[in-house]
């Protein structure tokens, strides 16, 4: 049988320090900074000028994510697959205004860069890209609508329209067909 001596205080302290350093090193190579300190899904408030516009938000593949009126807050994932940021197309419309379109795309999350110091290669190459945490979406997205010019005949701008789609000031100018 083997007999072990009780380690002295110096040896115990050395073992504890070695254990802490080992855990720190393992942690650096198995986590991602952005995954821990950031999010993968972000609430984005969609606004329009003017307010109360109808909006439709679709993802890259054209699937409708949201339909409603501005202002609206929608929680969206920033990533769309391994090393792929999400992209959202936003269409806004309102009676008396031209339809407007815009695209919402993410930026690289600042915490993702922290992997260089703290997250290691696993965080840079696997964890954050896989979870989508390497990207972030802005807190707000505003889309501007352009008012339809009342001086130009409506038929030159949009073709056949339903009377309910006409602004009130143009409805009064309609002449009935005989």
What would you note in describing this structure?
By secondary structure, the protein is an alpha+beta fold. The chain has a domain of 109 residues: Sandwich (Immunoglobulin-like). Helix content is 29%, strand content 26%. The chain has six helices and nine strands; from the N terminus they run ααβββββββααββαα. The strands form three sheets. Strands 3-2-5-6 form a four-stranded antiparallel β-sheet, with no helix packed on it. It starts with 8 loop residues before the first helix and ends in a 7-residue tail after the last helix. About 10% of the residues have low confidence.
Helices and strands, with pairings:
Layout lengths: L8 H22 L2 H5 L3 E9 L4 E6 L4 E6 L2 E6 L10 E6 L6 E5 L2 E2 L1 H4 L6 H12 L3 E2 L3 E5 L9 H5 L9 H4 L7
Parallel strand pairs: 1-9
Antiparallel strand pairs: 1-4, 2-3, 2-5, 5-6, 7-8
Characteristic key phrases:
26% strand; alpha+beta; 6 helices; 178 residues; 4-stranded antiparallel sheet; 9 strands
Summarize the structure.
This protein is of the alpha+beta class.
What gross morphology would you assign?
Answer: rod-shaped
Mean pLDDT: 75
Physical arrangement of strands within the biggest beta sheet: 3-2-5-6
Tally of contiguous helical segments:
6
N-to-C SSE series? Answer: HHEEEEEEEHHEEHH
Cα Rg: 28 Å
Q: Name the CATH class of the domain at 40-148.
A: Mainly Beta
Helix-strand makeup class: alpha+beta
